[in-house]
Specification:
The protein is an all-alpha fold. Helix content is about 80%, strand content about 0%.
Length: about 180
């Protein structure tokens, strides 16, 4: 029960923070909290699903970290030097466009792994089938949305910084592929 509430708390914290760095920390925390819940039954298949989930999502989140760091670099070149969402949103047109394009690619692949975008979705079937029903429901209904929420925050910054629909076309491509 403690793990269940910790998982819910990490998802709530993820969407409530005003920092893109803390957003990344929150999404990583959801991985750590939920991996134990996916392997709750401790059978061979449940443990394998938990490890697959943990490894794939951690690799994805690590890739997203590069995107967060690149966003900070783009912000510091644009005179913002912050990961504070409010400041970045107000000055998003001053962010380095090339750096934001690269940042969005990393964020899309990284958080897209967590959101279940194809071809990065291989953990989904195993984790959902092996997790207890309430955990599977939270994975589907809330966790995937938290990761997509992170993508949308970076999408709005990228669109404003680049003045193009670069990020929209990438999202459309992953959506069609998925």
């Amino acid at each position: 029960y403690l793990g269940f509430h910790l998982f819910i708390w990490t998802m709530l914290a993820t969407v409530m923070v005003n920092s893109l760095g803390l957003l990344w920390v929150g999404i990583e925390a959801t991985t750590l909290a939920s991996a134990l819940l996916v392997g709750f039954y401790r059978g061979k298949a449940a443990l394998e699903a938990a490890w697959k989930y943990l490894v794939l999502c951690t690799v994805g989140i690590t890739i997203a970290l590069f995107g967060v760091v690149l966003t900070y670099l783009a912000a510091s070149e644009g005179g913002v030097a912050s990961l504070d969402w409010t400041q970045l949103a107000m000055r998003s047109s001053q962010l380095d466009p090339q750096m934001m394009r690269l940042s969005f690619v990393f964020v899309l692949v990284g958080f897209g792994t967590k959101a279940g975008f194809a071809p990065l979705h291989t953990w989904l079937a195993d984790a959902h089938s092996q997790a207890p029903s309430p955990i599977s429901a939270l994975l589907s209904g809330v966790l995937l949305s938290c990761a997509f929420y992170g993508i949308l925050r970076f999408h709005s910054l990228t669109t404003s910084a680049t003045g193009s629909d670069f990020s929209g076309r990438l999202l459309l491509g992953f959506g069609v592929l998925s």
